[in-house]
Design brief:
Chain B: This is Chemotaxis protein CheY. The complex is a heterodimer of chains A (467) and B (123). Chain A has 467 residues and is of the alpha+beta class. Chain A has 3 domains: 115 residues, Beta-Lactamase; 109 residues, PAS domain (Beta-Lactamase, 2-Layer Sandwich), CATH 3.30.450.20; 167 residues, Hypothetical protein af1432 (Orthogonal Bundle), CATH 1.10.3210.10. The longest helix of chain A has 30 residues. The radius of gyration of chain A is 50 Å and the shape is rod-shaped. The termini of chain A are far apart. Chain B is α/β, with parallel strands linked by helices. Chain B has one domain: 3-Layer(aba) Sandwich (Rossmann fold), CATH 3.40.50. Chain B contains 5 helices and 5 strands; from the N terminus they run βαβαβαβαβα. Chain B has a 5-stranded parallel sheet with strand order 2-1-3-4-5, sandwiched between helices. Chain B is globular. Classes of the chains: A alpha+beta (467), B alpha/beta (123). Chains A and B meet through α4, β3, β4 and α5 of A and α1, β5 and α5 of B.
């Protein structure tokens, strides 16, 4: 049994009707803006999306506004004319973009596409699509504006800014850098090819930059000397970072450099001046120490030896550079007060007695008086005043003891006694260094500082000083 | 009839020069200001219209709008916002502050002239 063929006309008519309904629905509710317009450009029908696009509540409101003032959304009359001309000539227009005005004064970018259509009844009209492309247009424009701002910053920066390949070719540079490196323009610098080989006056600096950037990715305040376009040299401080490609390899260096030539020059001058001032200071101390030589050559030589020995002891005790310098200066000047002691006492063979001895003991206080108004960076006068004091209070002039005696004074006291006993004196021959060390050992921890005595023994046995 | 005068306010040099050249070719007299503060200094000399950007240093476009609406001499001067911003809430803020219209950058010179003419007519 076979089914009879269905009648042909009825279902087709139903399908046509359904299709017409669907088309109408689709036309009105599709989310894209669609219109139908006559050959003269007048709108025949628009959908909801078109009305919404231009800020109207519904298609009827849009059509009414257009009827009052035809095509008012085209701001530029030429835009409307060119769309219609192209449709008339070729029957199609695709992707035409122009600015259009909405009902509320908001001007947006529209993309219009349309084609000529013939209805079943034979009417010719245009069906078109409109799309809001404002965001697309403004995003790329905003990017261009932002780029302009950054370019302005880049070009007007005071620092030299650069991008450079690891091979040493400048890719991008600003005006400040080309001026700094004495090139006519940024282009003259980028046209240079691999410049780095010529640029760095110290090739090892370039290797360092290379290594630092590939290892840590960043370099800060690296100072290096560069050779400029005109052959002159300049010191710069470089900040740079490595830019890596997708595979992690360094493809670019970018950063800034600042001319620090002037700063380095003044630093250099400052260092030089400081060196001179230090030399002047030591020469002055030496001259002061030498003044006693004219009356008493033994004392002058003794001060030199004590300064050497006390310095060696201070180093062995692990004192810092500043404390060592202090002890050296105090040692050099400790007997300066002897210029007030009559020469006959200084050279007298045998022991001093009574007033002679009292006179001799005055030299510590006189030394203090001579030195106290000099603004040394250390208490030199005080140390000189104390160099005959003993830890157990048996010394002079004040009979101080224990914690009242600072470490430089303790060191100086030991060095003074050792040198005096170990050397020839005007009033007696040398007793010898071993006798001196024995004497010190006897009073180690009582009259003399134990550490200082140990340091003196070590300095002698290690040959820091010789007797 | 004297030329109509327009004050254009934008911190971008290239936008200012595009606006100026489009309007000058159409016969308007144009004065440029680099931001809202500069605009307030210059607006004293009297303008038929102000065209302003939104995002600017010192004084931005929305603030400028408010300040212009407070002054008796500029209370009714049409102010057109010309910006890359297209957010609806910013637009509503500008309208509330007294903006007459809103043009999203970039602009076609002819379209800009057409908008200006809709507000202040021909020169």
């Amino acid at each position: 049994m076979t089914n009879p063929s269905p009648p042909e006309t009825e279902p087709n008519r139903a399908a046509d009707a359904a299709m017409a309904d669907a088309s109408a629905l689709l036309f009105h509710d599709v989310p894209a803006a669609v219109y139908l317009r006559a050959l003269d450009g007048a709108f025949l029908e628009v959908n909801n999306a078109t009305a919404a696009l231009f800020g109207y509540v519904d298609p009827a409101a849009f059509l009414a506004a257009m009827a009052d003032c035809p095509e008012q959304f085209y701001l530029d009359p030429n835009a409307r004319k060119s769309v219609l001309d192209e449709l008339a000539a070729g029957g199609v227009v695709a992707g035409r973009r122009y600015q259009a005005m909405c009902g509320d004064g908001f001007v947006i970018w529209i993309e219009e596409s349309a084609k000529r259509t013939v209805s079943p009844a034979g009417d010719v009209f245009y069906v078109g699509f409109l799309r809001d492309v404002t965001e697309e247009k403004s995003t790329s424009w905003a990017l261009a504006e932002a780029e302009e701002k950054y370019r302005t910053i880049f070009e007007n920066a005071v620092e030299g800014l650069f991008q450079m390949t690891p091979a040493g070719r400048f890719v991008t540079v600003n005006g400040a850098l080309s001026r700094m490196l004495r090139f006519a323009s940024p282009e003259a610098l980028t046209a240079l090819g691999d410049a780095a080989a010529n640029l760095f006056t110290h090739p090892e600096d370039r290797q360092f930059l290379h290594a630092a950037l590939s290892e840590t990715g960043v370099v800060r305040a690296m100072e290096t000397e560069l050779r400029r376009g005109d052959g002159t040299r300049i010191w710069v401080s470089v900040q740079a970072r490595a830019v890596r490609g997708g595979d992690g390899a360094v493809v670019l260096y970018e950063g800034s450099m600042e001319d620090v030539t002037e700063r380095r020059r003044s630093q250099e001058a400052l260092r030089h001046n400081l060196k001179r001032t230090k030399a002047l200071f030591h020469q002055t101390v030496k001259s002061l120490s030498t003044t006693v030589r004219f009356r008493d050559p033994y004392t002058a030589g003794h001060q030199d030896s004590v300064a050497r020995l006390a310095t060696a002891m201070a180093k062995r005790l692990g004192l810092d550079r500043d404390a060592v310098d202090c002890i050296q200066v105090a040692g050099q000047l400790h007997d300066i007060g002897k210029i007030s002691v009559p020469v006959r006492y200084l050279c007298k063979p045998g022991r001093l007695i009574g007033l002679e001895w009292e006179f001799m003991k005055q030299h510590a206080a006189t030394g203090y008086e001579i030195l106290k108004d000099i603004d040394f960076p250390w208490p030199v006068a005080e140390i000189v005043l104390c160099h005959h004091e003993r830890l157990d209070g048996s010394g002079y002039p004040r009979g101080l003891g224990g914690e009242e005696l600072c470490q430089p004074a303790r060191i100086l006291a030991v060095a003074d006694v050792l040198d005096a006993m170990a050397s020839n004196r005007p009033y007696r021959p040398a007793l010898g260094v071993s006798v001196a060390l024995e004497e010190l050992a006897r009073h180690r921890g009582t009259a003399f500082d134990a550490d200082a005595v140990d340091a003196a023994r070590e300095a002698v046995s290690a040959g820091d000083v010789t007797y | 009839m004297a030329e109509k005068r327009i004050l254009t306010v934008d911190d971008s040099v290239s936008v200012r020069s595009l606006v100026s050249s489009a309007l000058r070719q159409a016969g308007f007299d144009v004065v440029e200001a680099v931001d809202g503060a500069d605009a307030l200094d210059k607006v004293n000399s009297g303008f038929d219209m102000v065209i302003t950007d939104i995002n600017m240093p010192n004084i931005g476009g929305i603030e400028l709008l408010g300040l212009l609406r407070e002054r008796p001499d500029t209370r009714f001067t049409p102010v057109l916002v010309l910006t890359t911003e297209s957010q609806k809430n910013l637009r509503d803020k500008a309208l509330a502050a007294g903006a007459s219209g809103w043009v999203v950058k970039p602009f076609e010179p002819a379209s800009l002239v057409a908008v200006v003419r809709r507000f202040i007519g021909r020169t």
